[in-house]
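Posting this for the archive.
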Amino acid sequence: MEIFNNFLNSKTFDNLNKFIAKKIFKIFKRFFVETDLKSLPTVNYPLNNDHINLNSDILFEDNKKPYLSYFDLPNLLSAIYRSKNKINILDYGAANLNLYYFLNQNFENIQYYFEDQLLIKKKVDEIIKEKKLKNIFLNGTSPIYEEFDIIYFGSSLQYINDYKSCLRNCCKKTKYILIAQLPVFFNSALPETVVLKQLNMHPDINYLYLFNFDSLISIMEKHNFSLKEKNINKVTKFLNFKNFNKDKFRDINMYDLLFELKNEKK
């Protein structure tokens, strides 16, 4: 296993022919490999216009869910909506407009805030103006920017280098934080994060954090948030960590973690 991991972690793998790399992935289905990096590369998850597909012309039928990193998100939002008759949601790492279209069709009183890389936000801004979309705002740019009912990290927190600062800022503005499809392990003797190399998007090579559960809980508790729910995420078919040392990275998997601000009235 160590020899194969070293190969996956090498420039030789990075430079493989696209067809061969996809063939290796199809056979072995290895999604990630541990690296010796201490933090994410400065340039990580780079985008160009060819990568961006916002599906701006797709309008989902009522009750037809788009692809979601957290499958049960509509039910969670429905519970919040019933208690307040409105929802302010920040979609952090939104990637496209599918969730906005779905929510706008299923909730009458919603304010949807979009956050992603600058290139994607510029495209979204163009679409908002062109199509005169309502109830959607670019995070941090709207004059009615306010506190949120929920901030949703849909498979995105692990790609944020300064995740501590991000969480600190988010915790000041919301009652719930949902971190979906987050790679997590359990071992208090290890550092709070380990940097992984992502293999399944070859020839694009990206890096992400694997989070130590105890350390992440400590960060959230410091900001007065408690863990409300913890579940294994099963959205991505065949996703696994078979090439990881299970004694070192105990119970390693993708998890959905829902945090709630303490001392809030329900």
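The first strand starts at residue 32 and ends at 34. The chain has eight helices and ten strands.
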